């Protein structure tokens, strides 16, 4: 058992932990980053599967994500645009693929009017929300005690409008059933991206990717830390007093003045805290849970949909894969589609055999792109639910009522322990941008405290 002493021990080598560690080191503090896995990056993972480079975790960068964009530029990485030339596809309740261009998809004039009205209402509400303090809104308690689903049903009884308004923050972002989280949680999700309209605009929210894969961000950040990153070191026990911490991992112990917990909050309970965390944290952390989505990658000899004049952008609240996009790698001759299967549909698909799951998902993609979609040369499902050190995707959110009840305490330190993770972010919530912001924030706080 190795024993070392550092100024700060960081638990977790994802974007948040590695950002914090780099910033602390730059300020002259010594660090050790302990990572449970045998790789860095956490929910960022670029891998080659059967010869195809796939973004198994996070990949897209949107124009508002300043912290991520600065990091990408600072690391010397290049970005490229998601392919979006041509028609998009919407599958409505009739099960038919309708092509469209522009922002509005083909629904009846009445449904279109309702969607526009409710979107305007939502944008106005979102504009009043500070993503870093949604609980501070005067109507936070009211908005946090009604489910997203119930609120939408109060606005209209047009089922197609409800389904389409529900899914941008539901299946597509929080990846939980819409009855399982509040209107306030939904508004936070939208506020973290600037507006509800931004969130539904694929050209905004899914704008760019990094050439060679987004995992290069944590890989390069880790490279700068050199020997200060320790892989395969799951922290099992964290002893703490006001004076400092002792982090005990499988094969090493780190004594430090501060600890940064840079892991998904649903995993805090895997660590034994000595003394136990305060009552508030014990309670609060139980009200956060991971969403669940399967990210499906289908690689074809060519991007055949482009020849049909399709952009690859497709969605439907009636389909198993509620959204899908052209995800072809930069400079690649082969074409890649990425589709997403969320919450209860994902649960259901993991109850059937792998062959049947593949068949059902590809059939759903074929509803958007035609029969050619049934025959990819490479097929892969990212299943973060079975990853011990993540346990879901994309991130954690509060159950109904939890955000206004506990939100203000989420980032409050406990003695020498600080918390940083995309799941705790305001701006950039659930995204890499939020992870970087949280990493920067705790680093700044610790530097100030230690240098005071
Ligand atoms: P993250 O979970 O990445 O890192 C935590 C680290 O802590 C992990 O490496 C884990 O192994 C480690 N750990 C846990 N317990 C430990 C212990 N006891 N001891 C030591 N180490 C421990 N975002 C985005 O901006 N654009 C996108 O397109 C997407 N798309 C997307 C798709 C999919 C499938 C996923 C799963 C996620 C995304 N995201 C995304 C979200 C984004 O990937 C995510 O928000 C951040 O990468 C999270 O970074 P963090 O550092 O906060 O946590």
Describe the structure.
The protein is of the alpha/beta class. It has three domains: 2-42 and 215-277 and 414-451, FAD/NAD(P)-binding domain (3-Layer(bba) Sandwich); 46-84 and 205-213 and 292-386, Polyamine Oxidase, Chain A, domain 2 (Alpha-Beta Complex), CATH 3.90.660; 104-200, Orthogonal Bundle (Guanine Nucleotide Dissociation Inhibitor, domain 1). It is 34% helix and 23% strand. The chain contains 17 helices and 21 strands. The protein has helices spanning 15-26, 66-74, 109-127, 140-144, 148-155, 159-166, 170-174, 183-191, 196-200, 202-205, 216-225, 279-286, 304-307, 343-349, 354-369, 402-406, 432-451, and strands at 2-11, 31-34, 46-49, 52-55, 79-81, 87-91, 97-100, 208-210, 229-230, 235-241, 244-249, 252-261, 272-274, 288-290, 293-300, 310-315, 323-326, 335-342, 378-382, 396-398, 417-419. The strands form five sheets. Strands 1, 2, 9, 10, 11, 12, 13 and 21 form an eight-stranded mixed β-sheet that branches. A seven-stranded mixed β-sheet has the order 7-6-16-17-18-15-19. The model has no long low-confidence stretch (mean pLDDT 97). The site of dihydroflavine-adenine dinucleotide has 41 residues, from helix 1 and helix 17. Keywords: Oxidoreductase. Belongs to the flavin monoamine oxidase family. One of its GO terms (molecular function) is oxidoreductase activity. InterPro entries: Amino_oxidase (IPR002937), FAD/NAD-bd_sf (IPR036188), Flavin_amine_oxidase (IPR001613), Flavin_MAO (IPR050703). This is Putrescine oxidase.
């Amino acid at each position: 058992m190795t024993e070392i002493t550092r100024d700060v021990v960081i638990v977790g080598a994802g974007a948040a932990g590695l950002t914090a560690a780099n910033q602390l080191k730059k300020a002259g503090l010594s660090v050790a980053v302990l990572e449970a896995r045998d790789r860095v990056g956490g929910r960022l993972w670029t891998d080659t599967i059967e010869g195809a480079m796939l973004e198994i975790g996070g990949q897209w960068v949107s124009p508002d994500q300043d912290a991520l964009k600065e990091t990408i530029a600072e690391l010397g990485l290049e970005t490229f645009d998601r392919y979006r030339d041509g028609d998009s596809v919407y599958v409505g309740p009739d099960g038919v693929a309708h092509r469209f261009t522009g922002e509005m998809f083909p629904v009846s004039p009445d449904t279109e009017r309702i969607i526009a009205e409710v979107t305007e209402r939502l944008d106005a509400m979102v504009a009043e929300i500070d993503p870093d303090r949604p609980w501070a809104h005067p109507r936070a308690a009211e908005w946090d005690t009604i489910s997203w689903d119930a609120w939408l049903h109060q606005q209209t009884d047009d089922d197609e409008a409800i389904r389409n308004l529900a899914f941008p923050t539901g299946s597509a972002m929080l990846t939980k059933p819409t009855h399982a989280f509040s209107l306030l949680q939904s508004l936070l999700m939208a506020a973290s991206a600037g507006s509800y309209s931004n969130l539904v605009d694929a050209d905004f929210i899914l704008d760019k990717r990094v050439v060679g894969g987004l995992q290069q961000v944590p890989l390069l950040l880790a490279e700068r830390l050199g020997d200060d990153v320790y892989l395969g070191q799951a922290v099992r026990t964290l002893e703490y007093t006001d004076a400092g911490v002792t982090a005990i991992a499988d094969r090493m112990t780190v004594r430090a003045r501060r600890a940064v917990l840079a892991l998904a909050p649903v995993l805090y309970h895997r660590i034994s805290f000595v003394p136990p965390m305060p009552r508030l944290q014990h309670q609060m952390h139980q009200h956060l849970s991971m969403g669940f989505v399967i990210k499906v990658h289908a690689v074809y000899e060519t991007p055949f949909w482009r020849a049909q004049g399709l952009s690859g952008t497709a969605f439907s609240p009636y389909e198993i894969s509620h959204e899908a996009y052209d995800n072809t790698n930069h400079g690649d001759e082969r074409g890649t589609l990425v589709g997403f299967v969320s919450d209860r549909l994902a649960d259901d698909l993991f109850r059937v055999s792998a062959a049947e799951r593949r068949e059902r998902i590809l059939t759903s993609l074929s509803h958007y792109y035609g029969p050619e979609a049934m025959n990819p040369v490479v097929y892969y499902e990212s299943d973060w639910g079975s990853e011990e050190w993540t346990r879901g995707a994309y991130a954690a959110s509060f159950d109904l009522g939890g955000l206004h009840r506990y939100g203000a305490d989420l980032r409050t330190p406990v003695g020498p322990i600080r918390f940083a993770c995309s799941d705790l972010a305001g701006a950039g919530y659930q995204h890499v941008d939020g992870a970087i912001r949280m990493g920067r924030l705790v680093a700044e706080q610790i530097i100030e405290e230690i240098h005071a």
